[in-house]
Amino acid sequence: LHHAKAAGRDTHRFFAEAMNAEAVAHLSTRSGLRRALERGEFLVHYQPQVSLETGAVVGAEALVRWNHPDEGMIPPGAFIPIAEDSGLIVPIGAWVLAEACRQAAAWQARGLPLSVAVNLSALQLQRADLVRTVTGALADSGLDPLLLELELTESMLIQNTELVMDNLRRIKAMGVQVSIDDFGTGYSNLSYIGRLAVDKLKIDRSFVADLTGSHDSARITTAVIQMAHGLNLNVVAEGVEDAETLEALRRMGCDVAQGYFLGRPGPAEAVERAARQASPFKVGA
Ligand code: C2E
Ligand code: MG
Ligand code: MG
Ligand code: MG
Fold this sequence. Notes:
The protein is α/β, with parallel strands linked by helices. The protein has 13 helices and 9 strands.
């Protein structure tokens, strides 16, 4: 089994030790983030998603980072909340979307039809120009809409305003996939699943993390997978950190897995290298 060797290269792991929260708060002001966007200091890392049926890399999640000239790699948790409060998540999110589409189109052009999953913020979903932004990113990159996936969270669907519903309907109509991120941690009213024609559930890392150690987590995960399949949805497990968990998920019938065991978020080239191998992760062998 090929264990991801990228662990040591993940600079952002050391972030918590290396940098104090005050410094980030100071940098992550509206003007600081705007300057970062103008100066091209944001970058996108990609984390592979692996089929539990074949062991092949089938896609990647796009995760934004701020490569600060003095402070180094700043993880999204340190600046996304501030970007959301200040509204700057809208241009930052649009940039991530365009960049991720461009990358996936490049993979597609080189014979690797990998899907790319992009996280959306509530503010983006509530905007009248979201459809235009998505259409633009697809048109500029030439990416097949079927290879783009947008990740929403349950809490974003509480405000099921006409605008949000309309945005999602129009995005779905283009062929873009929609998934529910961190599933199981938020709003537990499941009515949106049918109403919105969601394609995929991503089981939150908190359940996956102690799947092999907790009967409750194992039962919840099994139930979520069965429910999802009953509704014709695919299931992605987040936060797979060891072989045992991977095997348990495979036995449970989970479709796709993502996590440090399969590859940390990193440069696009690392995903491409893994995807070039027919079956980089032997599952169920
Ligand atoms: P998320 O969308 O749930 O992304 C998964 C997070 O879990 C990522 O953290 C990823 O590095 C981490 N992760 C993946 N596998 C494992 C594992 O095996 N173990 C552990 N402990 N963690 C794992 P990251 O990159 O720090 O992103 C954190 C959150 O920031 C994301 O959670 C997402 O909510 C948000 N985010 C990232 N990029 C964007 C973006 O472009 N736009 C928006 N709106 N939010 C973003
Ligand atoms: Mg996500
Ligand atoms: Mg998640
Ligand atoms: Mg999350």
